[in-house]
Amino acid sequence: MKDFRYHVVSLVAVFLALAVGVVLGSGPMRDALVGDLSDQISSLEEEAESARADADAAQAQTTTAQQFTDEAAPALLSETLLGVAVATVEVAGPDPQDSSGVRDRLVQAGATVAAEIVIEEAWTNPDQTAFRSSLASTMAPNVVGVDDATSPTTVLSHALAQALMPGVLPPGSTEDDLSGTDFPDPANAAERSALLLDLLVEAELVSGTTTAPIESFAIIAGPGAEDDAARAELSSSLAATAVVLADYTAGVAVASGPDAPGDLASAVQNSPDASAVVATVVEGTDSYGQISVPLAISQAFSGTVGHYGPGEGRTLVPPTP
């Protein structure tokens, strides 16, 4: 008897479930549920269509802006760096297209890109501190303007400048200072520069190519480390290198991406020593800012070291000569 009652209850439950399904699947209840769902679908479709339209409009504006930039660049940059030999120095991993874009604008300004150098991660890697110190000690006898008290980073930075600028000596040095090197004759400046560059390349601190002595540096900065503190430490070291390069030429500018805590542009701007001798262009690696890089270098050569781009303490666009 118990088993029979159990089966009866089970059958009743099944029929009740079927009845409820019929009620929900037809009549007013169905219309209420399906109608509400249809309204939601229609609303989502409208939002998606609006988003597509906005994206298409933004893309059209971007295309127009890029076309305007490409067409305006020759007039804005014409002969601003005519005949100047520039080295592009990539640091902190910039996008290759950004670096290529900066180089294109330098060429449009009349410059010759005589060196394409990459400062490798080992230049600032804390794990390589002892190695850099040993290398700096080895190279120092052939680097003019340094002594036993000079920090390894400063020695290597002077070595890089002298490697790319044969015959150019830091302030306060004369050709008499060459007497302590392996190349005391000023006529052998090219050989000393080649040695310094070879040592830096073999140590995997830098890489790249050079085709002629250079007169200016365009430092192209990537985003660097994801951690703000690590990025700031990296940027501080690179800013110190940029200051050393500025001992050799007035034409030194840093092109960076959008503002980021501890990035190279802010490290330069926040340092009284660096900000006085190294120009910066924030968003200088995008299609707009790339035009500002040659203009910033040109202004620096004229005696005005500026800081350009969006943000506090900057001028949006460098003045044209």
TrEMBL record:
Among InterPro entries, the record links this protein to: MctB (IPR021522)
Alphabetized UniProt keyword annotations: Coiled coil
Which Pfam families does this one have? MctB
Q: Which organism is it from?
A: Demequina muriae
User: Where are the annotated coiled coils located?
Assistant: 34-61
Keyword presence, Coiled coil:
yes
Query: From which domain of life does this come?
Result: Bacteria
* Coiled coil as UniProt keyword: yes
> Can you say what this protein is called?
Copper transporter
